[in-house]
Amino acid sequence: MSRALRGLAALLLALLAGIGWAGAASAHPLGNYTVNRAVIVRLGPTAVALRYVVDMAEIPAFSELQAMDTNADGRTDATELTAYAAAACEADRRGLSVELDRTRAGVAQWSAPQLSFPAGAGGLSTLRLVCSFGAQLPASHGPLTIEVADTTNDGHVGWHEVIIAADPGVSITTSDVPAVSRSAELTAYPLDSLQSPPQVRTGSATFRAAAGAAGSGSATDPAAPLVRSTANDPLAALVGGPLTPLPVVLGILLAAGLGAAHAVSPGHGKTLVAAYLIGSQGSRRHAATLGLTVAVTHTAGVFLLGAVTLLAGQFLVPERVIGWLTIGSGFLVVLLGAGLVLRAARGSRDSRDHVHGHELPHEHEHPHEHAHPKRELRARNVVALGLAGGMVPSASALIVLLVAITTGRLLFGLALIVAFGVGMSLILGGLAVATTMVRGAVTASGGIASHPLVRRAASAVPLVAGVAVLAAGLAVTIGALARFA
User: What are the residue boundaries of the structural domains of the chain, listed by start?
Assistant: First the structure.
């Protein structure tokens, strides 16, 4: 098969993957930003063995790889990898607290760290680090209570679990954590827990030596996967295709389609856009402005987050930047919703004043056709709505940027990111156009639309829409602030 045909086949596979991609999780099971940690405790007759496992998704792993390259030669050699693993495990050991009957136990490193880089989205690496620690038990002891706490706080979101199991010859009488890892020690995450991963950082158990007692759980570290089972991100896969004209054009079109699919997935403000334009009586020109603003803002957001990851990934956690942008987006929506409510209230008051001003006796009826002043929707409000809808960049687009940088295909990667943003804007802008057309058709139609009850209900729509936008903005802002807590 020729190279061009192979490239077209890859594009077709990406397209098929993209069909079901809109509602799927990102390349890493828990998201491309996550750092996941597990503490696996094995209680033996004479000592406690602890395995500390770290699983980093593509974006934090990318930052760590940049930090490992201490001589800045563009690659990591064995010496740099060994030094990084030793330093990382030492930091994790200091963050690990182990107490036996309320007395702090000395935790020491028992064996060399295990560092591996399973392949992730677009050929980017993820990172898996396994540190082996241990603590000796008193020479002569009865029942003991062990309390383990992982106090490490790197600012990243992710899966956190503590496992306490017993070796043969030891029995556990009470425990507040399981003996078997639900994630197979961060190698296979349960699908039903991805939206709300566990945040277990402490565990305790009471145990004692017991002749003939059977152990629980597995004493072996699951093998690190060579490739993530969910590493086939369709947008990131496009970057590695052939750079001949036909595959490039098809790739850009597919990126736009994936952006459109991203826009129709939950959480991208489709209801918000419709409610705002209904409540503010926006025009098609406003809808076009909205779509353009979404495209420009989303693309700029990806570049901003890419710069943060490249230049300050060790100091500024990318998902924190996402959180700040989400708070800013929610605050903008709150302001827009409040403006709609005030505008609707003023319009209702003006209508009452106008009616009251005409309650004069007349000797004969006359047509009442003079025009009421119409409050035009300001362009800056539409731009603000577009900013709110596009300022939080998608992780998949950031992955494309990082893949493009590492593979030397920056221009193609930028074209895909822009196309992705255009696809998003076409959906949100198209929704805005459809909303204005439907509203205009209903307003202009006769029949039931001219009935007094219908007209009275229609007059309440701006206020209802404003309240809906305000509530949505408050929900987004409060949710984002809660994640920072």
Answer: 27-209, 234-349+376-484
